[in-house]
Design brief:
Blueprint (H helix, E strand, L loop, with lengths): L4 H30 L7 H29 L3 H23 L2 E3 L3 E4 L3 E4 H29 L4
Antiparallel strand pairs: 1-2, 2-3
Helix pairs in contact: 1-2, 1-4, 2-3, 3-4
Amino acid sequence: MNTHPYLRAFLAGIFVPTLVLPLILTGFIIVRLVLQFPVPIERAMVFPMAIVPALFGLWNMLWLGSHGRTHLPVGVHGAILPLLIAPTGLAIGSGLGILALHADGVMWLQAVLVPYTLLAPFFCVVLAGYYLVWKYIIGTVNRVLGIA
């Protein structure tokens, strides 16, 4: 009997973003419609909502396929993902006009300037967050599904 370990790895990977992204979308809807934030933030939300769950699932499949050779812990493997997402998101956001690089920071939707001095610590927090999510949540789901 084939137990489909890669399908289970994909499902374990999409578990977290499938639960978290609707909550983030709800927050953005409240900011946009209730607080009347005049910037079209929905333009910046559509692409991540479509790609992030699939990316998490594929990344977990990659961990499953490479774990026998690399023996990389799932938390470390998950912490590598933002190192791929950030430059890709920056390139896509710049191409779509959502982000623009300036000398003193990143301009988001031609309305919010985020200085580089805030981006560096934020990125470190993101790396730590990804490590913890992958180690404790996705790693646990992997064990429950019998693929870890």
